[in-house]
Write a structure and sequence with these properties.
By secondary structure, this protein is an alpha/beta fold. 29% of the residues lie in helices and 21% in strands. It is globular, with a radius of gyration of 23 Å. The structure holds zinc ion. Zinc ion binds next to loops.
Length: 540
């Protein structure tokens, strides 16, 4: 007979309504055998008691339903974001709050050729915008570039501009110039950024693939208590599956990985065939077969598609990454083939157009239990949630955004009324929509307890509470980062709660997120994770 381990804890939060709390979990063959008290495994012949977490709290392993493998790749460059951040090795990088600090930090590493910073966001810095002259203080000979946290903008020094021929260039869309026509160093969007990125050897696809990136991502996720994580705009192809499996299946790889392949155009029938082939090759640790679609851009970048009255100050409406008519064809094709879709929608025009397309697709053939999920859904209102509920469509709301960008949305993008109902978790739950919440790492840090804190507290970076009416309870938030996210990945029958028969995926916490003061949820230490019964201790 195989071995049974009985983990004991101060408390076990199961997320199973039939037995919400316990003190012991018995694990056999990577699955939950029994839940209850010290005798729970007795009917199964007992087991080996593991007491190392006796003073801690065990919960279902967290599920990060929207993040990107690039979180594992960007750390090869220098972090220059505004907020403190942990790297995959667990080292804390203090945030940089002034341009001088960005320059000083890049100078420290300026022996590298070239020098690249990431995570920067001028929206937080109340100084003149970082420009080429400032970055020339890092080096006048070697190229220096700073990627913005959105990855849609960057700023370069003179040497980097020169490398792409931008000092003598004529009109280049996205090459920003000052009033005298001199390039400021700032480049916007891919057409302008790509020539510099290529010369600096920065390849976004390579930053999101390969064994080292996978392992760094796994380490970051494990540190945050995550046992299942997505890569939600994956470039994985049928040909990459073997190499990915080799990394993911290794016993020291600490998470289940769920890539959703990014699609902006193409023939949905042919793509769905590839997805079906990849789904067949899925294992318990690598789950393939879903796609990710893009509709609009980002609200803080003024590139999301908003319904009337649009952006403050008459800023023109945003852009479509996939035009509505193309989107309708993709959605109909993927739905008919039973391919689960994660659909990026930031503005409320994007979510409206997408819900309409989904309703149209669902009038035709396709599965009833499809698990299509709207990602971000930042400006969805009650009416849109009711529509989503009627269609069986879930949402994965961007709770972290309230903290990072809430103040900016009030002042600069949509104003108070709409900002205070952004990422409306409460409305989603009241409409009966499956709710997940996410980090979108590397856009914001991968840390589900922080994400839960954001949904509960709705506190912005300046400390104001933005939209108390949309706050959810700690129990609802814990559900959103476990079972809620698991539903969106069609894995809620396997993970997301501690129940007999499910995979033994757990997180070991220093404290109970349901009983600490809600303001302290984000500060609870993650002591370990358990994946399929295997323990990964923090710091190991
Ligand atoms: Zn994303």
């Amino acid at each position: 007979m195989s071995e049974t381990t009985v983990f004991c804890a101060r408390q076990v939060l199961t997320m199973d309504a039939n037995m919400p709390q316990a003190t012991h979990v018995a694990v056999r063959d990577g699955r939950i055998l029994a839940v209850g008290d010290a005798s729970c495994a007795d009917p199964w012949g007992g087991g080996q008691l593991d007491t190392r977490f006796a003073d801690a709290v065990i919960a279902p392993g967290f599920v990060e339903g929207h993040a990107h493998l690039m979180e594992g790749g960007l750390w090869r460059y220098t972090y220059v974001g505004f907020m403190d951040r942990l790297d995959p090795q667990g080292q804390r990088w203090p945030g940089v709050t002034r341009n001088e600090e960005v320059i000083a930090r890049l100078r420290e590493v300026a022996t590298h050729e070239p020098t690249i910073g990431w995570g920067f966001d001028p929206i937080f810095i109340s100084q003149a915008r970082l420009n080429r002259d400032m970055l020339d203080q890092v080096s006048t000979e070697r190229p220096v570039a700073v990627l913005f946290s959105s990855l849609h903008l960057m700023v370069c020094n003179t040497a980097a501009l020169r490398s792409a021929g931008y000092l003598e260039a004529g009109d280049v869309e996205g090459l920003m110039r000052d009033a005298q026509g001199r390039p400021t160093g700032e480049l916007r969007e891919m057409a302008a950024m790509f020539p510099v990125l290529r010369r600096l050897g920065v390849d976004f696809r390579r930053l999101a693939a390969g064994p080292e990136v996978l392992r760094a991502y796994g380490a970051s996720a494990r540190r945050a208590g995550v046992t299942t994580a997505t890569d939600l705009f994956s470039s994985l192809t049928v040909q990459d599956v073997d190499a990915t499996l080799e990394v993911v299946q290794a016993s020291d790889f600490p998470i289940r990985l769920v890539p959703a392949v990014g699609v902006v155009d193409g023939d949905p029938v042919a793509i769905a065939r590839d997805m079906a082939q990849m789904r067949q090759r899925s294992t318990s640790k690598l789950r393939m077969g879903a796609v990710k679609l893009m509709t609009d851009g980002s609200i803080q970048g003024f590139s999301a598609r908003l319904q009337w009255p649009g952006y403050l100050g008459g800023v023109p409406n945003g852009m479509w990454n996939t035009p509505p008519e193309v989107l309708r064809g993709l959605i109909a094709g993927f739905h008919a083939s039973g391919t689960p879709m994660h659909i990026h929608v930031n503005g409320n025009e994007a979510s409206a157009v997408t819900l309409e397309a989904l309703a149209h697709a669902m009038a035709g053939p396709g599965p009833r239990d499809h698990r299509h999920t709207l990602q971000h859904g930042q400006l969805m209102d009650e009416a849109q949630f009711r529509r989503a509920a009627a269609l069986g469509v879930g949402v994965n709301l961007f709770a972290n955004h309230i903290y990072y960008f809430g103040d900016q949305h009030v002042a600069h993008t949509v104003g108070l009324e709409r900002a205070q109902r952004m990422n409306a978790c409460r409305s989603a739950l009241e409409a009966g929509v499956n709710l997940a919440i996410h980090s979108d790492a590397p856009v914001t840090p991968l840390a589900p307890l922080f994400t839960a804190w954001c949904a509960v507290q709705r506190q912005t970076a300046s400390g104001r509470v933005l939209g108390q009416a949309q706050a959810i309870t700690p129990a609802q938030a814990l559900r959103a980062i476990t079972l809620g996210a698991a539903w969106s990945l069609n894995m809620d029958h396997e993970v997301g709660s501690i129940e007999v028969g499910k995979r033994a995926d757990m997180v070991v916490l220093q404290d109970n997120p349901l009983t600490v003061p809600p303001s302290a949820i984000k500060d609870i230490a993650v002591r370990a994770t358990v994946l399929g019964g295997q323990v990964f201790e923090a710091g190991a």
